[in-house]
Known about the structure:
Pfam families: TP_methylase
Mean pLDDT: 93
CATH topology of the largest domain: Methyltransferase, Cobalt-precorrin-4 Transmethylase, Domain 2
CATH architecture of the largest domain: 2-Layer Sandwich
GO molecular function: uroporphyrin-III C-methyltransferase activity
Low-confidence stretches: none
Organism: Paenibacillus algorifonticola
Enzyme class: transferase
Bound molecules: S-adenosyl-L-homocysteine
Number of helices: 9
Radius of gyration: 21 Å
Number of domains: 2
Strand order of the largest sheet: 3-2-6-1-7
Protein name: Uroporphyrinogen-III C-methyltransferase
Distance between the termini: 79 Å
CATH superfamily of the largest domain: Tetrapyrrole methylase, C-terminal domain
Amino acid sequence: MMKQSAGTVYIVGAGPGDPELITVKAMRRIQSADVILYDRLATTELLDYASKKVELIYCGKAPNAHAIPQDQINQLLVKYASQGKNVVRLKGGDPFVFGRGGEETLELAKHGIPYEVIPGITSAIGAAAAANIPLTHREHASSFACVTGTRCHGDKAPVRWDLLAHSVDTLAIYMGVSQLGSIREELLKHGKAASTPVALIERGTTSKQRTFTGTLEHIHHLAASVQLSNPALIIIGEVVKVREQLLMAEQQAEQQAEQMIG
Ligand code: SAH
């Protein structure tokens, strides 16, 4: 019975911050939603595109302060879909990259609720582009990894900094601001060069973006001195140099243009 009348739940990636970075498909689902459950990170401007009759539910997750616990979010998705409503679960970046989309789809599957996952530009991709850092590069990097910075030893799947230090060229670290000191220590301990370039990108792709670069050796001091705050992404690897090369090339081109005018 319920399966025939149930609405669909769309687990939607809102992209990294700039509202224009949402997909056409995601935008259409927002426009036709009866209910939208959204996170702190999802760009709230996108909600302006929803119907006037839409029911908006804020699930805001500030670090260490879950406004609505995950199991209740799961229950709400099931509840609204069972009422025949089209539900959008709007999440920052991509729902399947540190977005708990896997838990939500599992819950829906268990209840026989139809669902669709709509990908979004994850913040590593968005922030890297906005900071002019290519995550791979013919000369500097043949691989990159998206890594969580918050998982300590003893967790079910601890981060293998020992392997990451050597086997991946570019590391894009999410949720790492408060752990930057220990991430740095782990990587140095496992042999990553102290001179490895690092970029810190705060609020990437938004009008409030701030970008800082340094080396692994001093990165914790840099973060403290600029009072780096969330959301921020940490990119570690030789590719960070490309940003500096681009900035230098632009400056030289400007100087040459000025000389020609002079
Ligand atoms: N599903 C999201 C990630 C959620 S985890 C995605 O695919 O992007 C939250 C972490 O994402 C933050 O701690 C931060 O590291 C990163 N993040 C999200 N938005 C960001 C932004 N605009 N700039 C930099 N980092 C961001």
